[in-house]
Amino acid sequence: MASFLSMPSHLSQFLTKHLISPTYLGTRTYKSWQANMAPKSNWGAFWYNALTLQIYDAWVLGFNMSFVWRCTTETVLLPFFRENFSRRHLDIGVATGFFPATALAQQPPATLPAQEITLFDLNEIALRSAKARINADNQKTPVSVTTVHADALAGVPPELEGMRFDSVSLFNVLHCIPAHQERKNRVFELAADVLSDDGVVFGCSVLGIKHHAWWNPLGWMTMAFFNLVGSAFGNWEDEPAVFEQGLRREFEDVKTWIVGSVFLFRARKPKRIDR
Ligand SMILES: C[S@@+](CC[C@H](N)C(=O)[O-])C[C@H]1O[C@@H](n2cnc3c(N)ncnc32)[C@H](O)[C@@H]1O
Predict the structure, then answer these.
(1) 87, 97, 227, 238: which could join 208 in a potential S-S bond, CB 3.0 to 4.6 Å?
(2) Which pLDDT value is given to residue 40?
(3) 115 and 87 in a common domain
């Protein structure tokens, strides 16, 4: 029930309009279904619910990161997160909250007297679940957790106007957004607008099909399934160069690299562009 209520409005309108129509089976093709659905940026947030979040860490961060994308969470992504995580942190695209919850739990409590974490996501179930997990995993550390329910492509939401963070993470969110890469790069505008002068934006995203070695059938199957069937991914054509351009437009200091099929980036010194 909760997942039906959290369905994107275009999907519920589509189901209401077409499932009761006698022409549905004969006239609707997969392509037109996709044309109706794909452009909406909220598809990337649709699939996270009580059930999928239960298996998310083991499946996505455990199995897929190690064996499909070859960029292991324990040895690459978590150390990368911990290196850049600060006391005033914004996490965009949270799912279960694994990265901030684990990074915090692994710090000695005394070094973090006043940790502030803002969780930003288009999916309220993910926000509630990540907040509960951070609080549960860090009972000995004073942590203030705030949630912001908004679309990362829509600019700075009113709740974050005028706020500045010392670190902003964008882990595994760009590949979930079903939009052209240039449009996805708007997420970097949002990150630049809320980053402090000395702050850091860092993240990772699974690249498009050109970056999947032909010998990895799991990568092909996962890409095809999530891009073409479920629209949980929107990264079929994602290229490192386009993300890099987006980052360089917003930040003076940009570093990017690739591990397996995953693009990693770290950017500092926001250019403070007037929008
Ligand atoms: C694959 S999960 C990544 C979660 C976490 N950062 C990690 O690496 O495990 C993607 C998250 O991004 C969120 N998301 C997808 N599209 C979004 C959008 N347009 N704006 C904000 N959040 C979005 C989803 O709801 C989901 O929680």
Answers:
(1) 238
(2) 53
(3) yes
CA of 173 to the centre of ligand 1 (A): 4
CA–centroid distance, residue 95 to ligand 1 (Å): 6
Ligand 1 atom closest to Cα of 151?
20
Q: Residue 259: which CATH number?
A: 3.40.50.150
- Longest Cα–Cα distance of the chain, Å, equals 65
**Ligand 1 pocket, 201 CB below 6 A?**
no
User: pLDDT of 2-31, one tens digit each?
Assistant: 443 344 444 444 444 444 333 233 223 333
CA pair distance 26, 237, nearest whole angstrom: 31
* Residue 87: DSSP 8-state: S
Ligand 1 atom closest to Cα of residue 43: 16
Beta strand pairing call for 195-206 and 262-270: antiparallel
Structural domain count, the chain: 2
Q: Are residues 105 and 5 in the same domain?
A: no
Q: Which tens digit of pLDDT belongs to each residue from 96-121?
A: 999 999 999 888 765 655 789 999 99
Are 159 and 262 within one domain?
yes
**Domain contains 275:** no
263 membership: H or E segment, kind and range: strand 262-270
- Which residues constitute the domain of residue 26? 1-37
Atom 27 of ligand 1: nearest residue by CA position: 95
